[in-house]
Write a structure and sequence with these properties.
Low-confidence stretches: none
Mean pLDDT: 95
CATH topology of the domain at 66-88 and 193-236: Dna Ligase, domain 1
Strand order of the largest sheet: 1-2-3-4
Order of helices and strands: HHEEEEHEEEHHEEHEHEEHHHEHEEEH
Helix content: 40-55%
Shape: globular
Number of helices: 12
Largest sheet: 4 strands, antiparallel
Structural class: alpha+beta
Distance between the termini: 50 Å
Strand content: 15-25%
Radius of gyration: 22 Å
Length: 373
């Protein structure tokens, strides 16, 4: 790897790159190809940025900020109009071709064997033959998503939706119009495009869209500048916030406190901005309360009865090597998972997986035995 060329692409000195290799960058040789991964944001370089052995860089996808007062934030942040797309509830991947092989990177910069096989299956071969420098930023969604399982989308397995386009060795993305142009050109699915709205009325239309999406069990929207002049923003439905709380309280000791607090605070600001009636606010309070108490008591009762707190998921793979690779991937991410024997199908295998929720298991058992909080 030519460190001087890599440092130049990153916008830092060779000495700085070498010092980061000792402290902030992890090296990985599995699965191939070999890479260096930024574990945390440092020197303006996003977490999840990856430097491959051939010197090519795939930049980390930047975090998208979230307004709490929608109307005020839109008028303050955007310039003259807002493009609105769906924010889908799955896991974020960056897909690129490295030395002719497709790799799918997680948000943290790991190559996920399962996501890579899904990408190889769903993407047309010609996309990287014609445009080898592309980085496809996509959301993988569906009931067989092992990270975020959801039945809200039209698939019984897992699907891929393009939401942004980037390029290797370059920061930033190419914008909403280029994303949908590429998707249409190569027959890819893309996140739903709801339209472009002027600043004065955008918040009213977005509210209508978010309410409708929430009723469908979907997450929310991403707001973008049509010319990609400012960073995007995201905004989620109350139902999505409560769904997150339900999962988090079911596994209450495996989530950071900010995860719980931020979603509760979102609900308060949304309720005020939408000028809800007392009846509407009580309904929101009921929804929030149920998303907290019901899953939490279910977890406590299960542990009280001697059960293991776990999450059941299922994946479908073409190759058992992919399943073995994914098992190792989960283990290196600190996730304890038990894989069922594979069930053969016409085009591969279906495999059930039990993910053990370790911290919540241990904490709940200790509390039931009298340990103090």
């Amino acid at each position: 790897m030519n460190l001087s060329k890599v440092a130049e692409k990153l916008g830092i000195t060779v000495d700085r790159l070498q010092s980061l290799q000792d402290t902030k960058i992890s090296e990985s040789s599995w699965p191939e190809p070999q890479l260096l991964r930024f574990d945390k944001e440092i020197s303006g370089i996003e977490a999840g940025t990856v430097i491959f052995g051939n010197g090519e860089i795939v930049w980390g996808y930047p975090s998208i900020r979230r307004p709490l007062m929608l109307e005020a934030a839109i008028k303050r942040h955007f310039i003259d109009s807002v493009v609105v797309e769906e924010k889908m509830n799955g896991h974020n991947v960056r897909i690129a071709s490295i030395d002719g092989d497709i790799v799918a990177l997680t948000r943290g910069g790991f190559i996920c064997p399962y996501s890579t096989e899904v990408a190889e299956k769903l993407l047309p071969e010609e996309i990287f033959e014609e445009m080898p420098g592309l980085v496809l930023c996509a959301e993988m969604v569906g009931p067989e998503n092992p990270y975020v399982s959801s039945e809200a989308y039209p698939t019984d397995s897992i699907d891929l939706y393009l939401f942004d386009i980037a390029q290797k060795n370059r920061r930033g993305t190419l914008g909403v119009h280029k994303t949908h142009e590429i998707a249409e050109r190569f027959g890819l699915k893309a996140t739903a495009f709801f339209g472009e709205y002027p600043l004065k009325t955008a918040h009213e239309r977005i509210k209508e869209i978010v309410i409708k999406l929430g009723r469908q069990g979907r997450e929310g929207v991403v707001m973008k500048d049509p010319e990609n002049r400012v960073a995007p923003l995201k905004y989620t439905s109350s139902e999505s916030n409560c769904s997150d709380l339900e999962i988090a309280f079911r596994h209450y000791n495996d989530y950071a406190l900010d995860f719980f607090l931020s979603r509760a605070v979102r609900e308060g600001f949304q309720s005020v901005e939408w000028e809800e009636s007392e009846e509407e606010r009580r309904e929101r309070a009921r929804r929030i309360g149920e998303s907290i108490l019901f899953p939490l008591t279910e977890t406590i009762k299960k542990k009280q009865q001697g059960e293991t707190i776990a999450q059941r998921i299922q994946i479908r793979v073409k190759s058992l090597a992919t399943a073995r690779g994914f098992e190792y991937h989960l283990r290196r991410c600190g996730i304890r998972a038990i894989f069922d024997p594979p069930l053969p199908e016409d085009d591969g295998y279906t495999i059930g997986i039990t993910k053990i929720i370790m911290s919540t298991n241990d904490k709940t058992e200790a509390l039931l035995n009298g340990e103090m909080w």
